């Protein structure tokens, strides 16, 4: 990752973004030198954490543990591309007005660092710095952000993720997923995900339609389908293999796959997706069947 190569003395822009339906709207905030330097300092602390602590690859099926200082992900995991585009537009964004900052419910703020517009690094914090202002952390919006007693905008000392040209370091998985995997822009893609799964697996047309609707409503199912679509074994799941595994787990093949196609509906959704995402397992001694919610890989 590029954290060791980042020039923290490069020009930096403070950015805020809010959402309007599936759109993301960004603004650059004119910030005084002391504010920008403070945010650079917090960014430096985040980079130091990445450089010196332990991380592991991001998996939507898994939860960040206390032992994981950060998670590593590809830029492809930033599913809300409209949000990403606004963040990285940075200095080219229109300047925020005081009215916008007061009236809009901001989704995030970011410090965007770099000279080359195509190779920027963004330190992103989920949340509304306007609501933080009552805590008096940093700054106010006038013509320029400065230190004052009663700030309009305030920033704390932490970031939730760092977006590099090559990838992402996730410092807080919950906030990362809330920003880039739970927005209206992302939910609009659920039909595409369901159809993509239907192209790779034998699923009834009614099952694809059901799944698309359910994916809009349920974050757990979205994580599971994303895990299935990225899996290495997906191409191996022929009708014969699926039927064998359904039987091996003690499930009803006549209900789940009656005519060589998977049936996904209210009654079968749970079992089918657990099966496809490898969330079913058998107790070694009891022989009982169990299901996992999120799963953690065993460390070597």
Structure characterization notes:
- The structure is a single chain.
- The chain is α+β, with helices and mostly antiparallel strands.
- The chain has 2 domains: 2-183, no CATH class; 189-291, no CATH class.
- It has 12 helices and 12 strands.
- The strands form 3 sheets. Strands 2-1-5-6-9-10-4-3 form an 8-stranded mixed β-sheet, with helices on both faces. Strands 7-8 form a two-stranded antiparallel sheet.
- α7 crosses α9 (219-230).
- The longest helix has 20 residues, at 33-52.
- It is elongated and about 70 Å long.
- The two termini are 23 Å apart.
- It holds the Pfam family KwaB.
- This is DUF4868 domain-containing protein.
Poorly predicted parts: 132-143, 146-150
SS summary, helix count: 12
Alpha-beta classification: alpha+beta
Query: SSE order, as H and E?
Result: EEHEEHHEEHEEEEHHHHHHHHEE
Radius of gyration: 23 Å
Organism: Amycolatopsis heterodermiae
Protein name: DUF4868 domain-containing protein
Pfam families: KwaB
Secondary-structure blueprint:
Blueprint: E1 12-20, E2 23-29, H1 33-52, E3 55-57, E4 70-73, H2 81-89, H3 98-103, E5 106-113, E6 121-126, H4 129-132, E7 139-140, E8 146-147, E9 161-163, E10 168-170, H5 173-180, H6 184-187, H7 190-200, H8 205-217, H9 219-230, H10 239-248, H11 253-256, H12 269-276, E11 280-282, E12 289-291
Parallel strand pairs: 3-4
Antiparallel strand pairs: 1-2, 1-5, 4-10, 5-6, 6-9, 7-8, 9-10, 11-12
């Amino acid at each position: 990752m590029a954290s060791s190569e980042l020039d923290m003395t490069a020009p930096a822009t403070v950015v805020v973004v809010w959402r309007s339906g599936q759109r993301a709207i960004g603004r650059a905030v004119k910030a005084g030198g002391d504010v920008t330097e403070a945010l650079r300092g917090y960014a430096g602390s985040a980079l130091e954490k990445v450089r010196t602590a332990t991380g592991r690859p991001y998996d939507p099926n898994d939860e960040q543990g206390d032992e994981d200082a950060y998670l590593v992900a590809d830029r492809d995991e930033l599913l809300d591309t409209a949000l990403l585009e606004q963040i990285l537009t940075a200095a080219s964004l229109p300047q925020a007005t005081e009215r916008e900052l007061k009236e809009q419910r901001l989704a995030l703020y970011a410090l965007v660092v770099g000279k080359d517009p195509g190779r920027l690094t963004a330190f992103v914090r989920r949340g509304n710095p306007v609501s933080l202002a009552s805590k008096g952390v940093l700054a106010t919006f006038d013509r320029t952000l400065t230190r004052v007693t009663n700030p309009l905008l305030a920033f704390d000392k932490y970031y939730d993720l760092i977006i590099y040209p090559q990838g992402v370091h996730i410092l807080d998985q919950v906030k990362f997923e809330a920003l880039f995997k739970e927005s209206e822009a992302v939910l609009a893609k659920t039909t595409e995900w369901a159809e993509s799964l239907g192209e790779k697996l034998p699923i009834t047309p009614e099952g694809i339609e059901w799944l698309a609707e359910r994916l809009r409503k349920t974050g757990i199912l979205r994580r599971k389908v994303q895990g299935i679509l990225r899996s290495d074994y997906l191409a191996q799941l022929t009708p014969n293999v699926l039927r064998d595994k359904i039987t091996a787990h003690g499930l009803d093949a006549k209900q789940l796959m009656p005519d060589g196609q998977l049936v996904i509906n209210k009654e079968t959704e749970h079992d089918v997706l657990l099966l496809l995402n490898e969330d079913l397992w058998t107790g070694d001694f009891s022989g009982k069947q169990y299901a996992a919610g999120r799963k953690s890989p065993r460390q070597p």
